[in-house]
Amino acid sequence: MSGTLLINDKIKKFNKRIKVTGDKSLSIRWVLLASQATGKSKAHNLLMSEDVLAAIDSIKKLGIKVKINKNYCEILGNGINGFNFKKNLTIDAKNSGTLGRLILGLLIKSPNKIKLVGDNSLSKRDFSRVTKPLQEFGAKFYYKKKNKLPLSILGSKSVKGINYLESKGSAQCKSSIMFAALNSTGITSIKARKSRNHTELLFKYLKIAIKIKKTKKYDFIDIKRPKIIPSFNYQIPGDISSCAFFIALTTSANDSQLLIKDVNINPSRIGVITILKKMGAKILLKNKKNYRGEKISNIFIKSSKNLKAINCPSELNSSAIDEFLIIFLIAARAKGISYFKDISELNQKESPRLIWGSKILNMMGIKTKLTKNSIKIYGQPNLEIKKPIIIKNYLKDHRIFMMSTIAALTCGGKWKIHDKDSINTSFPTFLKIIKKISSKYYEINK
Ligand code: S3P
């Protein structure tokens, strides 16, 4: 835990343009896939956050050459399963569930044991969702504590495609299996509950043989091992999950507006926009473009005075999975009682977010009714916090820190928010952008 932010005033009205940093899901996928490509790949606007740097460090340890230049990152891929490393290797996924789970999919042929470790938060998270299917491919796992990090993986010489039902709606699990399919003979078939589809779009763009049949709840994905993956350049678009904090800030600020440039608006990621618009937020998507299967646009937001509660349809859960904390904050300012159900997955994140999100709302004077799987939020449109609030965040959850900052800037009160440095995992420029919008210096203790 380090760095504390003190906020004593609400944000003044603003009218600005901003750009957020590159999409985290796409950045990690680009690093891992470029490591399997043959030859030199380049990415511009790669997110330079701790999670992505941990991905770069991991592939370097696995023998892949990486150059980070001022404006781009270059990876010299060594082909599928072209890793080259010494015995007793340890790789560190730090705080990143995406890195930890996806990279295991690339290691199912490893001839030596590789140890995977993570920070305190990641070591509390469940890895069975990926070790289970990867065992079916033939990999072996060794743990100190079952299904938790640290664990070691030992690959298998001959790996055959599997049939698997992914029932949680976890893109990390689906992508880990898809990465394993790159190394497997035969066909890998996944029946996957809907979740973000960046890996599918990248596979298609790279001409990897992938067939997808969509139904309302599931995608049926078939993958055949490619002979090679061609090297590829990529311009990473802005991260909608980072934008979400600024969409919420503008929505609940007074008389303000904001334009956010070049954001990835992949339909499997924009649940936050759909939900907030249903609640009365004023959000417009402008200049839509296609980029290698992804959709990109500018997002224009105006403050909104009449926010109303929502009974959130659970079909939207997976496309808003990382944004619920900030959606809860808007529900706290909306008229009526909002209800979010079937969201136990939120407790599987960097911290148990359903529980912690509810606690923060309670500290703000908002009533909630919490179950393991749902939350009711009793909104107060005229909420004015007068008392001091201290947010401790010793599990290093970047989104708890950012949600608390937006709450402090829009609801009043005197806030002391710990663990400022957690933003470095996903959105290192978060506080710089806050400063640009508010033209104000907020006190930060190291
Ligand atoms: C991610 C998938 C989601 C999300 C995470 C990033 C990804 O996790 O919460 O921040 O890049 O695949 P789950 O797949 O566990 O839902």
Task: Give your account of this protein's structure.
With 446 residues, the chain is an alpha/beta fold. It has twelve helices and 24 strands. The strands form six sheets. The protein has a four-stranded mixed β-sheet, with helices on one face. Strands 2-15-17-16 form a four-stranded mixed β-sheet. Strand 8 and strand 9 form a beta hairpin. Helix 7 packs parallel to helix 9 and helix 9 packs parallel to helix 10. It is globular. 52% of the residues are buried. It binds shikimate-3-phosphate (S3P). The site of shikimate-3-phosphate has 10 residues, from helix 5.
Provide a quick synopsis of the model.
With 446 residues, the chain is α/β, with parallel strands linked by helices. 29% of the residues lie in helices and 27% in strands. It is globular, with a radius of gyration of 21 Å.
Shape: globular
End-to-end Cα distance: 10 Å
Catalogue the unreliable spans: none
Beta-strand residue fraction: 25-35%
Average predicted local confidence, pLDDT: 97
Biggest beta sheet summary: 4 strands, mixed
* Adjacency order of strands in the biggest sheet: 22-23-1-24
Helix proportion range: 25-40%
Enumerate how many helices there are, as a single number: 12
The helix-and-strand class reads: alpha/beta
Question: How many whole angstroms does the radius of gyration measure?
Answer: 21 Å
Task: List the ions, cofactors and other small molecules found in this model.
Answer: shikimate-3-phosphate
In total, the number of strands is 24
